[in-house]
Amino acid sequence: MAPVLVWAAVGIFALIGCGVAFAAARGNTGRADDYYLGGRVIGGAISGLSYAATTYSAFMLVVLTGLTYRGGIGALGFELIYFSGLTLLVVFGPRFWLASREWGIVTPSEMLGRRYGSKAVARSAAIISLLFLMPYCTTQLAGIGLLLSEVTGGAITLELAVATGAVLAIFWTLLAGLRSVAWTDAGQAAVMLVAALLAVGFVVAAIGGPGAFVERVQAERPEWLDVPGPGLWALPTFLALSLPWFFFPLSNPQVSQRLFVVRDLGAMRAMIFWVLGFGLIFTLISVIWGFAALILTPGLENTSAATPALLASGAVPVVVALLLIVGILSAAISTLDSIALTLGSMTARDLPGRALGEARQIFVGRIVVVLVIAFAALFAVRQAAVVDQLAALSAAGLVVSVPAIVGAFFWSRGTAAGALASLVGGAALAIWMALETGISVFDPMLAGSVIAASGGLFVAVSLLTRPRPEALDFRGTLAPKLRAHGVW
Amino acid sequence: MTVFGWWLTIVGGLILSGIVVPYGILSGAPASSGIAVFWTLFALGVVAVIAAGIRGWRA
């Protein structure tokens, strides 16, 4: 594909995005919760599309497509177990929202710190988020780099593509914080969905229509319709990848922080429906796209290149291919800027020894946004070949926050020492197992051990220690409010 | 059992079925789309239980 066409599409996308971000910036008041949470007045559609765009990243049309190409239908099951993790929002969504309103909480790590009455808990949760979300940021920029360089035959270099994505993410985040991020996310979600629907329609048509598509997959790749399929999706691997991803709505602060931003529970309900609709359609599209690549462009050695190969196959008109490139760019940037903003808010509110003023919180957050994205860009250029491993490792690492989160709302006996031991012990184990012993994220031993250790430490150490006097009683305080809102 | 208890049980069973049915029952069928169809129905089941879970929320 001609680089000039790709640059033109990216340029139009950037201009429209900047217009949306500038328009969104007009609502800002200069307060920290306004910058990081959009004043807590975001409606259902915008928060839902923003949540969806943050959750469904470049991973979908780069990595998940590649996993389908390599291993078949197991990729659909893996992604749908992840999708089923949205059931956690029924239980935890209103609790997060009510706690944030009741105590003026801005970040998920701050929520844990306030609940257990410990700054060390908030600080540890923030540091762990920084540590494990870095690889996840890197995969977004690596996805952009891989895509743009592959579709242009290297005319757009990996470095230039990564730099383009990084500059856009930094600018849109710095401009107006959550408002610009949420509004650009919503627009990007629409682009992602429309582009992917059009593109998958064209490739299925090129194969001969839905009936012919199914017949050809059944005839040419029957093993890919089964589990474990051609080898990738053995049950242990399936569990190793699915288990930590199931807890994504709780463990990943860039999405759990979205539960603080909605204006009321009606908006949260609408948000959840938007995420469900988007997630289901986008998952099916990504997997169909992977099977289509298998039919139209067989024999690829690097399965992460399935999407660029399909775009270059001639099955997709140039205009639609350009739209899909912008859609994937959107998916990556919307995830990246949300993560960077969340990490900025955690650094500004949870790491300093004493509370910073409103203006300083925003300033520190902005510096962190630039540093996070710059670091991710550097790492993406050097490590682009290990996209799958890095994305999965972040899920296995972040899951250590789940026991403390569940305990915050459902176990009054949980203590600061228990939460701290769970967070630090679980994270240390994840790092040791992955980096020192070389256990792969495709081995269920990694996620299973981390979850067991984190949960076990939380319960055992809590039973051996006492709750702090300054700990908040989430369960007791929120119970009448939950009843008033008709929440279980 | 409370309504919430029933809901949790159904959700647990649904998620377990998302693993057990494809790997334990449908695996090995010759050239079939059964697993793909099952997982699509599983996703619709997830939507249904979430819709049931948030139906009673009041703004």
UniProtKB/TrEMBL annotation, chain A:
Family assignment from sequence similarity: Belongs to the sodium:solute symporter (SSF) (TC 2.A.21) family.
Record Gene3D superfamilies: Sodium/glucose cotransporter
Membrane topology: Multi-pass membrane protein
Biological processes per GO annotation: sodium ion transport
Designated name of the protein: Solute:Na+ symporter, SSS family
A Gene Ontology cellular-component term: plasma membrane
Catalytic activity: L-proline(in) + Na(+)(in) = L-proline(out) + Na(+)(out)
Transmembrane region(s): 6-25, 46-68, 80-99, 120-148, 160-178, 190-213, 233-250, 271-296, 316-343, 363-384, 390-410, 417-435, 447-465
Family annotation (InterPro entries): Na/Glc_symporter_sf, Na/solute_symporter, Sodium:Solute_Symporter
Signal peptide start and end residues: none
Location(s), subcellular: Cell membrane
Automatic annotation (TrEMBL), chain B:
Sorted UniProt keywords: Membrane, Transmembrane, Transmembrane helix
Residues passing through the membrane, by range: 6-25, 37-57
Domain of life: Bacteria
Protein name (record): Uncharacterized protein
